[in-house]
Amino acid sequence: MRLTLSELTYAEAISEATCLLMERDPNVVLLGIGLDYSSGVFGTTSKAHELFGSYRVMDTPAMENALTGIAIGGATVGLRPILVHARNDFMFLALDQMLNVLSKWNYMFSGQAGNLPVVIRAIIGRGWGQGATHSQSIQSLLAHFPGLRVVMPSTPADAKGMLIAAATGNDPVVILEHRGLFSVKGEVPSGFTPSNLSSGKIMREGSDVTVIATSICVQESLIVAEELQKLDISAEVLDLRTIQPIDRKLIIKSVSKTQRALVFDTSWTNFGVGAEVGAIIAETKGINLKSPLIRIGQSGVPAPVSKPLEDAHYPSLSNVVRMIQDMVNGTDSYSTEIRSITEDFKGPY
Amino acid sequence: MHLYERMLFIRTFEELVASEYPKGNMKTPTHLGIGQEAVAVGVLSERSPNDVIFSHHRCHNHYLAAGGSPSALFAELLGRKDGCSGGRGGSVHLVDRKVNFLGTSPILTQAVSFATGAAFKFNMFNEKRVAIAFFGDAAFEEGTMWESFNFAALYKLPVLFVCENNRYSTESSLEKRMPKDVTFIEKAKSFGLSANKVNGNDIMEVAKAARIAFDDILRGNGPHLLECETYRFREHVGPAFDFELNRTYRSESEIRISMTKCPLKITESILTEVYNASAEELESILLQTKSVVSESFSIAQKSDFPSKDDWFKHLYSENEVNLV
């Protein structure tokens, strides 16, 4: 079956998925703060609100914990809720419900209490002075708790496909979307097209190093890979796509081939996604790294606001190129300044 | 009479659990509902089969009063695979979807939010159904209670919040947790709910108040709080009496006095004095009840333990949407 493709932004792709889901199933309802504002959560809920109204695209009071419980209770009687958090940092208030209920409901009742098809969209912020409590990225914490699926779409196609898959599946799924990706364009298949929620994907094949990346860092890694090509270094870029369950097979296959690994994640490195990837590599017989693992992410402090501090806090792509250059060649001569995708973001929100 | 029998069934069940518990075959923290039976039976005797129920850690009364399978509950306590939660949930994670008892959670106020959510769905689809949440007095201390109340009142949701106020939270008395002149009823009313308080040990009073609440909710007038004053005879968790274990947070005399106001005793008096039930009749009902409860227990004991090979099942649902 030949699919038609259109070019959509990440935000438009989420919007398209949302409208398709809501049209197809009257049980799908959106809940969160500001969903019916003219801004519609960065454009992702405006169209749905226009089509389906304020009762199905619902602007709720600020009540993250109980709201998640409400989504759960609704799901027990047939509702298919999609919760939306404008920042995943606000979602921390809902962690009790997410970790104590959503992740465990199916298991601790041996399936006798039914499934909880609750989808939670939460946005990761970055830059423009958003600061410590508006730029966290919670995937590692959530992935640690068995039973909760955690995905991070890096392309518009996945932004659409993963939302459709999550909302039509029967498991609770947390979808972390990066604010910096919202205006990124990409090819998106038309129609009702779910993507899978269990595998990673090789975005660019290479032989000298595997760059394992999440979310916007995938896009950044592709830029880095292009620059490395000019230096005759062939980088394989692996989009993890799903943090829980993590695609061990793909990581092992790629790193076995290249024997060099760098993890590029949106959050802090300590106890992060890179730590898990490192463990997977270390646990696997037959992988002998030519160079120690490198983990790249936010520096080990809460995100500062002032621009020079903020710039120092996030990885510079030129630095990433140099690090890989050093890994492969032992040199670090690369000196071009690379502009991050997130530089285009104009605040305040 | 049938209300009395239902309460007696629950009491007999819980007392059998209490007597079996020290044998060590029920390896799960168990919070008995002995003394509080009238609330569960009174409220749930007025519900429609399509109404849904959520509860908290002290949930055996509600599970049984809802019509949940007694042998499945015994089996769950024994950790057997025929337990209502497959042996994986224990005493605090009970479910029986066949009677719309949709799940319990020992984390305070989660059940309150679940019921609010079910009511939200009923409202959205114009279903004439009520969601019921059972909880204790300490639940009012958690923020999620008030988030749920606000939402329920805002959207006039069909939810009945039932508080079993036994004035103790584990070992902390209510006076240590709430200012003296503040009441749950007034707090709830200030959030836009209808609220009433009853003697939770008087089954007729509970049933009547529940009926009024259900009717009002079904007319679309929004959520109700029903506060039922009651008393927990045994310790917070476990089968013993506090005074047997030298706990001093409540005196033995307070406990014994409260046991004289037992909901079963109150109903027995009414049955004998007003309805002329004879002692033989009550004795026969008691024997019959004991026999049914024992039978359920025997069935449960015959159930196997879940297979170790199944330990990974149900982490995720079986249906996965696949790649395009």
* Main sheet summary of chain A: 7 strands, mixed
Strand order of the largest sheet of chain A: 3-2-4-5-7-6-12
Query: What structural category do the secondary elements of chain A indicate?
Result: alpha/beta
Termini gap of chain A: 40 Å
- What about the largest sheet of chain B? 6 strands, parallel
Largest interface: A-B, 54 and 50 residues
Shape annotation of chain B = globular
**Helicity range of chain A:** 25-40%
How are helices and strands ordered from N to C of chain B?
A: HHEHHEHEHEEEHEHEHHH
Rg of chain B (C-alpha, Å)? 20 Å
In what order do the strands lie side by side in the largest sheet of chain B? 2-1-3-4-8-7
Low-confidence runs of chain B: 319-324
State the share of residues found in helices of chain B, binned by percent.
40-55%
User: Compute the gyration radius of chain A: what is it?
Assistant: 20 Å
SSE layout and pairing:
The complex is a heterodimer of chains A (349) and B (324).
Chain A: E1 5-9, H1 10-24, E2 28-32, H2 40-43, H3 46-52, E3 57-59, H4 64-76, E4 80-85, H5 95-102, H6 105-108, E5 119-124, H7 139-143, E6 149-151, H8 156-168, E7 173-178, E8 185-189, E9 201-204, E10 209-213, H9 216-230, E11 235-239, E12 242-244, H10 248-258, E13 261-268, H11 273-283, E14 294-298, H12 307-313, H13 317-329
Parallel strand pairs in A: 2-3, 2-4, 4-5, 5-7, 6-7, 10-11, 10-13, 13-14
Antiparallel strand pairs in A: 1-8, 6-12, 9-11
Helix pairs in contact in A: 1-3, 1-8, 4-5, 9-13
Chain B: H1 2-20, H2 37-44, E1 52-55, H3 60-65, H4 70-77, E2 101-104, H5 110-124, E3 131-136, H6 143-154, E4 159-165, E5 168-169, E6 172-173, H7 184-190, E7 194-199, H8 203-218, E8 224-229, H9 252-260, H10 263-273, H11 279-302
Parallel strand pairs in B: 1-2, 1-3, 3-4, 4-8, 7-8
Antiparallel strand pairs in B: 5-6
Helix pairs in contact in B: 1-2, 1-11, 2-8, 4-11, 5-6
